[in-house]
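User: Quick sanity check before I run a bigger batch. Here is a single chain. Can you write out its predicted 3D structure?
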Amino acid sequence: MRWYNNLPVLFLEGVDDRSAAESLIKAILIVEQEVEQLPPEPDAWYDHQLVGLKVFRDGQEIGSVVRVDHLPAQDLLVIKTLDKEVLLPFVKAFVPTVDVSNNRIDVTPPGGLFEDLEDDQNAN
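Assistant: Done. Predicted structure follows.
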C-alpha cells in the first residue's frame, strides 16, 4: 500500500492491469491482525468491543450497544432500550466511561434522548 494524493492505493499480487483492478471495485478487504500486536491507544476501541456492552445512566441499566455508526462529524453509539433505538454521539461529554472488561458503558446524555421532555408532554 502507498499513499497517492492523500488516498491509499493498494497493490495486489495477481492484479496486473486496470481491468483486473476495476473488477475489485467495492470488494471487501479483510486483514487479519492480532489486536495484541497493535500499540495501545487510550480511549480507542473496535466496534466489536463495544457492541453488546450494557449501557448505564446514573447507575441504572438503560440498554445495550447494538452497533456503532461512523459519520463524518463523529461516531454514534446505537443503543437499544426497552422500546426504541437511541443514537448517542460517542464523545467524552456523553460517554465518560467505557469499561470493556466489565461489559459496561456509563453515559451522561442530554435530556430528551432517552425520555420525553416535560415541555413536549405539556405542549400536547
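Residues 47-106 form a domain with the SH3 type barrels. fold (CATH 2.30.30.240).

User: Great, the batch can go ahead then.
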